[in-house]
Design a protein that fits this description.
94 residues; alpha+beta; 32% helix; globular
Length: 94
Amino acid sequence: MLFAIFCTDRPGRAQVRLDNRPAHVAFLKAAGDTVKLAGPTTTEDGGAMTGSLIVAEFDDLAAAQAWAATDPYAQAGLFESVVIRPWKQVLPAA
């Protein structure tokens, strides 16, 4: 089952994001085909990162939550909130 993981950064934590970015990217890459897409959300002008969006495949919500909790960004206290919802891909057709 696919899950959309919406993460919102705590205000004033840009340096935490920058410091932990290499570990975060390695974490995503290590997940292999589990991660279908991932990237930062940004300010309207695209000048600053404000959070993350990840779509990944897990057996259930508990597995998605457990995996998200081990993200280096989460462990560094970057996120103000993390919302995980089941997601159904419509386009492009899977």
